């Protein structure tokens, strides 16, 4: 990234093979525990492998004590040397706004997050911002959400894209459609959907969802992370990430072939 690009926010991660993503990716999900951290780590691993520098920002980490590892630490453990930033940490496993209120700790809002993203984007090729839970989870008393943080980032001149991490099975299509609609209503760019944890033995709904998720999202399926990707002693995480994420995210995964291979005929 050159100085001019850093100044006007037009740098691209073409060098990492992430076509269409301009260096800032907000990672949200259809809910909590759907694999956002694992997906963030997979994207980071491929960017690092392509020689990019990567920062990972968690605006509000909840459910973790002062000495415990948070999501940014997990990304580092899985992907390798990323720069880690956490703006707030609350011990109770709740939405950030609720956890802040109950703990008496300060909230974190869109302005601070956007300013942090801009600072990081000046220093790192790729900035990944992982939300807590789903897109419209509240971070402060005014009800600001991860979507507001992405909008505030855009207002500062960057072009953030959003990645939606979805659960695999029955129930995911509705939340995917709702999340995509909320993004469209705010004119935020949904880059695509990644299934965070693809079961070893996928059921009928999971298999059908491969074809239906892109329709519900109005955006492509950009990856399917297999169950066990975080703990396979035989397969390095970076290799698993490469074969599980689509070329738009720097991998080799083929959505059409995977979907066809899991089609269940009548
Ligand atoms: N593909 C996968 N293989 C193995 N474990 C997975 C996979 N995806 C998710 N998990 C596990 O499921 C749990 C939830 O995943 P993860 O922490 O990525 O969710 P999250 O969406 O980031 O949750 P949060 O809203 O708390 O940030 C973790 O223990 C994680 O290791
Ligand atoms: C504690 C948990 N793992 C996340 N960090 C926070 C999830 C908040 C979800 C709120 C909700 O949608 O009801
Ligand atoms: Mg997480």
Automatic annotation (TrEMBL):
Cofactor requirements of the protein: Mg(2+)
Binding locations of substrate: 62
Region (Disordered) location: 1-21
Binding locations of ATP: 33-38, 71, 130-133, 196-197, 227
Annotated Mg(2+) binding sites: 37, 71, 130
InterPro entries referenced in this protein's UniProt entry, alphabetically: DTB_synth_BioD, P-loop_NTPase
Pfam families in UniProt: AAA_26
CDD domains documented for this protein: DTBS
Primary location recorded for the protein, binned into one broad class: cytoplasm
EC code(s) of this entry: 6.3.3.3
Highest rank taxon of the organism: Bacteria
HAMAP family: BioD
Functional note: Catalyzes a mechanistically unusual reaction, the ATP-dependent insertion of CO2 between the N7 and N8 nitrogen atoms of 7,8-diaminopelargonic acid (DAPA, also called 7,8-diammoniononanoate) to form a ureido ring.
Name this protein carries in UniProt: ATP-dependent dethiobiotin synthetase BioD
Gene name linked to the record: bioD
């Amino acid at each position: 990234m050159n100085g001019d690009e850093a100044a006007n926010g037009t740098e691209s991660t073409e060098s990492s093979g992430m076509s269409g993503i301009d260096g800032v990716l907000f990672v949200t999900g259809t809910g909590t525990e759907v694999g956002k951290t694992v997906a963030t780590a997979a994207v980071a691993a491929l960017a690092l492998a392509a020689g990019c520098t990567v920062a990972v920002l968690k605006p509000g980490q909840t459910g973790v004590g002062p000495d415990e590892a948070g999501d940014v630490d997990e990304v580092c453990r899985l992907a390798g040397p990323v720069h880690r930033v956490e703006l707030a940490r609350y011990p109770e496993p709740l939405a950030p706004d609720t956890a802040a209120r109950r703990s008496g700790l300060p909230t974190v809002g869109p302005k601070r997050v956007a300013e942090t993203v801009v600072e990081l984007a000046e220093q790192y090729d790729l900035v990944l911002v992982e939300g807590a839970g789903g897109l419209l989870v509240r971070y402060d008393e005014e009800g600001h959400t991860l979507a507001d943080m992405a909008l505030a980032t855009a207002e500062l001149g960057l072009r953030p894209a959003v990645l939606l991490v979805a659960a695999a099975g029955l129930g995911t299509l509705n939340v995917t459609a709702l999340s995509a609609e909320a993004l469209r209503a705010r004119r935020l760019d949904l880059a695509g959907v990644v299934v965070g944890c693809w079961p070893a033995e996928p059921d009928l709904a999971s298999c059908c969802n491969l074809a239906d998720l892109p329709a519900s999202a109005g955006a492509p399926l950009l990856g399917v992370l297999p169950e066990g990707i975080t703990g396979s002693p035989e397969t390095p995480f970076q290799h698993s990430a490469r074969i599980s994420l689509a070329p738009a995210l720097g991998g080799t995964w083929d959505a059409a072939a995977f979907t066809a291979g899991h089609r269940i005929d009548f």
